[in-house]
Amino acid sequence: MKKNIRIGFLLFLLITGFYSCKDDSYTYEEIEFPDITPISNEDLLDLTQKATFKYFWDFAEVNSGCARERYHVDDPANDPYTVATGGTGFGLMAILIGIERNYISKTLAIDRLTKILNFLETADRFHGAWPHWIDGTNGNIRPFSSLDNGGDLVETAYLAQGLVCIKEYFKNGTDSEKAIAAKADLLWKGIEWNWYTQNQNVLYWHWSPTVAFSLNFKLSGYNEVLITYIMAASSPDFGIEKEVYSNGWALNGGIKSTNTKYGIPLLVKHNGDTEYGGPLFWAHYSYLGLNPRGLSDEYVSYWDVNVNHTKINYNYCIDNPKNYKDYGADCWGLTASYTRNFDGSIGYAAHRPTNDLGVISPTAAISSIPYTPTESLRALHYFYTHKDILLGPAGFYDAFSPTANFWVARAYLAIDQGPSIVMIENYRTGLLWKLFMQNEDVQNGLEKLNFRYETP
Fold it and tell me: Which domain holds residue 372?
């Protein structure tokens, strides 16, 4: 791992004290962001990562140490105890970045990680899978809906991705570090992936102790869930066979697409949007640890899939068929995030070209930086030029609409902040990609599915 991280000297002088963690408290001080015009790319990436890290450290759920589902700056008491399972997986990766970039000491990180893993060990699980939401005060499930009141295999896969990275980071360390690595390894290996097939050649998203598989949501065709099949194939005790992947995810080749947009091949049939592709988080969540560079199966190259998906989203914003204010090469990125309701309140929407509500989500362009570094950095500079309203205590806010008098959702979601800090790190050092891809179980799973991939 690279530890010779470049820190802009000017930024260092200006923001000394910007983040200091002397104990494992959950209090924070308001950040004074430097006014550097212009700011260098490296300094801006430093600032963005350091600010975003605070979401998973200062604003973590107080009892468990896990990632909160959301944080509203103007209403900090809003839903303070709901833990996001997938967001916690992203947060585990963020903590490793915090160690590497000296935001926190390894000692403090070990204390926090021990707390998180102990909580996950005793929290509700359903055939090994955690629910979408967990009550941070007691580890009990918080139902996502009346039918979604059990295991959520996709959110669990995002958590497992983070657990693998924790295992790899600490496995050769001190006795306390090895204990963390062993517990992380044990936790993800207890997930009964094969249970979620119902003895069919496909994975199912949900299982409930009261309604069983009533939601009947198959993980089929292209969306955000590739990592679920990779983790399921990698499991030494509860693994799936290649037929489950080929039939379930890849639809026996039906996943491939010959469609193009703006002269760019889409390559795969995105569920629900075969013209432009889905929201950009589909190019992020599964690839925080799973390195798409050099990753391909018998159907497609997933690096090409993600680069093309991102460029189509970018070109749509330049095309701007709805003539929204500021859309263009500097202001782009449509993905699932908070949104602006008709009355001006905060809602939620899966923004994408076919559901374009005039709302830009900073995580969309930021998290795409490995695929479109030039375009993503231009967007990041645009966000920074509006830092007075877009930059808050835990990074850039979740969403804004320049069209609606520059409406801003002064709030954060774990599943948006996590990809931002992690994908910037993968762009700069490849840290999480290296950790995940060096895991022997993951390599066994990829080989079982006949993937080609790059090793660290």
Answer: 9-21+37-448
Handedness of CA 418, 302, 454, 427 (dihedral sign): negative
The total of structural domains in the chain comes to: 1
Task: Classify residue 95: in a domain, yes or no.
Answer: yes
81 occurs within a structural domain: yes
Q: pLDDT tens for residues 155-196? A: 999 999 999 999 999 999 999 999 999 999 999 999 999 999
Calpha distance 400→410 (Å, rounded):
9
Q: Are 89 and 162 in contact, with CB atoms under 8 Å apart? A: yes
| CATH assignment at residue 300 | 1.50.10.140
What confidence score (pLDDT) does residue 36 get?
Answer: 57
pLDDT at residue 30, as a whole number: 42
Q: Is residue 404 a part of any domain in this protein? A: yes
Rounded mean pLDDT of the chain? 92
Residue 27 burial by Cβ neighbours in a 10 Å radius (0-12, 13-18, 19+): exposed
| Calpha distance 283→279 (Å, rounded) | 8
Instruction: Render 24-74 in DSSP notation, one character per residue.
Output: S------------SS--HHHHHHHHHHHHHHHHHTTS-TTT-PPBSEEETT
Q: In the structure encoding, which two tokens stand for residue 340, read together?
A: 């602006």
Q: What are phi and psi of 84, to 5 degrees?
A: -95, 120
Give me the helix-helix angle, 373-385 and 302-319, nearest 10°: 50
Residue 1 lies in a domain: no
pLDDT score recorded for residue 34 = 52
